[in-house]
């Protein structure tokens, strides 16, 4: 039986550098680019951005790190909305300017479309018009621009505005419903490669930690729970449950790499990607994660030699 490998990347905002750090170490160890190691890539939110850049431009993780840092890609994508600059602490608009992000992605991906891909892609977004998750894959009904897909999958509510795509529908970051796309990508791959043995490598971007005083929480209303990050807490617990279910179903066919950020003194802020110090720290965390899981990764890869 033939086999296929899937790489799945969780959403995580600025923590995409952790995932890139893991992937860069994998490339060094195998002497093979991520593009060549995997038959299919899935990504949610910032993981979707990495996915589109790798598959659309046949880039390695090293290439993406170089492009982001040399061209200050994140700085250009994270220009604050003018209304928020005027009002400072009161955020009455999306935190960042959607037009600047769109321009950067169009510059990087040009006129490339889904039909240009030679590898399988799986990216979730949320369709506001249809009130449902949409999945972008190679055989989607509309041959979307890759820059539009990258724009939509990174349109995290409160950070960026929704994106109107070629079919006229408005979409936002798929992380609101599928921040860990691994199992869904696996099931999609089984439909496409039903005669193949499919293996899944899934990489997270760090779990946030929450501290809530139970006695004080008895008096909390919506505003207080919101400031404590209840939405992020719910998302984390849904992801953890999904990971456990994936491991239970797939067994040794899957390997998931993730950890709590508090263990590495990394800020929880999801929009620190334009901070060079945090970029370096995130890459170092990725290297440490790889070293910690190296033997498991070697076993998962099976027939790819690691010196």
What percent of residues are in strands? 5-15%
- Tell me the helix content: 40-55%
Based on CA atoms alone, the radius of gyration comes out at 19 Å
What letter string, H or E per element, gives the SSE order?
EHHEHHHHHEEHEEHEHHHEH
Largest sheet: 8 strands, mixed
Instruction: Using the alpha-carbon principal axes, give the shape.
Output: globular
In whole angstroms, how far apart are the ends?
Answer: 26 Å
Low-confidence blocks of residues: 82-86
Give average pLDDT, whole number.
Answer: 88
Structural class: alpha/beta
Structure, described:
The structure is a single chain. The protein has 307 residues and is α/β, with parallel strands linked by helices. It is 46% helix and 14% strand. It has 13 helices and 8 strands. It has helices at residues 16-30, 34-37, 46-57, 61-70, 73-77, 82-87, 98-109, 146-153, 182-192, 214-217, 222-227, 230-250, 276-301, and strands spanning 3-9, 40-43, 120-127, 132-137, 163-164, 170-173, 197-203, 254-257. Strands 1, 2, 3, 4, 5, 6, 7 and 8 form an 8-stranded mixed beta sheet that branches. β5 and β6 (170-173) form a beta hairpin. α3 runs antiparallel to α8 and α7 (98-109) packs antiparallel against α8 (146-153). The longest helix has 26 residues, at 276-301. The protein is globular. The protein starts with a strand and ends in a 6-residue tail after the last helix. Residues 82-86 have low confidence and may be disordered.
Key traits:
single chain, 307 residues, globular
How would you sum up this structure in a few lines?
The protein has 307 residues and is an alpha/beta fold. The chain is globular and about 60 Å long. Helices cover 46% and strands 14% of the residues.
């Amino acid at each position: 039986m033939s086999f296929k490998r899937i790489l799945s990347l969780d959403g995580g905002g600025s923590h995409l550098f952790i995932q890139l750090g893991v992937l860069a170490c994998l490339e060094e160890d195998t002497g093979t680019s991520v593009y060549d190691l995997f038959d299919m890539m899935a990504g949610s939110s910032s993981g979707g951005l990495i996915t589109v850049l790798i598959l659309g431009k046949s880039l390695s993780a090293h290439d993406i790190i170089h492009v982001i840092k040399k061209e200050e890609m994140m700085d250009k994508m994270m220009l604050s909305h003018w209304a928020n600059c005027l009002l400072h602490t009161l955020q009455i608009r999306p935190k960042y300017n959607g037009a600047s992000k769109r321009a950067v992605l169009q510059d990087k991906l040009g006129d490339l479309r889904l039909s240009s891909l030679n590898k399988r892609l799986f990216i979730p977004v949320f369709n506001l018009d249809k009130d449902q998750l949409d999945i972008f894959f190679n055989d989607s009904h509309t041959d979307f621009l890759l820059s539009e897909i990258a724009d939509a999958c990174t349109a995290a509510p409160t950070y960026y505005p929704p994106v109107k795509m070629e079919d006229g529908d408005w979409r936002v970051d798929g992380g609101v419903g599928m921040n860990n796309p691994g199992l869904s990508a696996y099931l999609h791959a089984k439909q496409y490669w039903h005669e193949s043995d499919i293996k899944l490598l899934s990489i997270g971007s760090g779990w946030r930690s929450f501290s809530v005083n139970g006695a004080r929480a008895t008096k909390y209303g919506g505003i207080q729970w919101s400031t404590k990050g209840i939405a992020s807490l719910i998302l984390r617990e849904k992801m953890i449950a999904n990971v456990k279910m994936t491991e239970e179903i797939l067994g040794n066919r899957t390997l998931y790499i993730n950890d709590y950020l508090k263990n590495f003194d990394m800020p929880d802020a999801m929009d620190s990607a334009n901070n060079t110090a945090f970029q370096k720290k995130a890459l170092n965390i990725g290297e440490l994660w790889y070293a910690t899981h190296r033997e498991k990764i070697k076993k998962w890869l099976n027939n790819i030699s690691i010196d």
